[in-house]
Specification:
With 211 residues, the chain is of the alpha/beta class. It has one domain: Rossmann fold. 35% of the residues lie in helices and 18% in strands. The strands form two sheets. Strands 2-5-1-6-7-8 form a six-stranded parallel β-sheet, with helices on both faces. Strands 3-4 form a two-stranded parallel ribbon. α2 links the parallel β3 and β4. α1 crosses α2. The model has no long low-confidence stretch (mean pLDDT 95).
Length: 211
Amino acid sequence: MSFQFPDQFFVTGTDTNVGKTVVSAMLTIGLNGTYWKPVQSGLEPITDTEYVRSVTQLDESHFLPERFRLTEPLSPHLSARLDGVEIHLSDFELPHAARSPLIVEGAGGLLVPLNDKDLIIDLIQKFQLPVCLVSRTQLGTINHTLLSIRQLQQANIPILGVIMNGPLNEENKRAFAHFGQIPILGELEPLEDINPATLRSAFERLFPKAP
């Protein structure tokens, strides 16, 4: 499909480990953009920024430093507490990116807490960014995806569409489009190996006319 990505957008997932970092890597290399992870929870074995840099082999000009680097691979509010750190929405500002688009990756899903009152969705609202939602394709994803779509719609956050990550599932795709009433941007099938060539190839399959 032909799709024009905006100059800045937010990548979130319906759940943790849904594949949004792989999708972010594909978008960063495919769009020749800038990747930014505002909050990193867990530093071992590598961070998400280090992972994206590794699999894309892009130089440092494509990456921005995290605002928070939290030690434990937990929800940011808990990881911050264990590190003796406080996270406030006022701590965040969208950085300048030398390369457009700026691809901002969240931590976990929309309702993951940053602190005792703010969630990831509140950070998205602060940034005023449209969202690319990454979903699974397996059993259970319809519920998680439609709940995420509804949450974004209730918050009046623009949704670019859904990227489905996993084995092709036509019924789930149909359900997302019908009940969610949003575009399906693409279906990223499992990559046997994740490297610059496979990521570029996947991007070109999903977005053949994108710049």
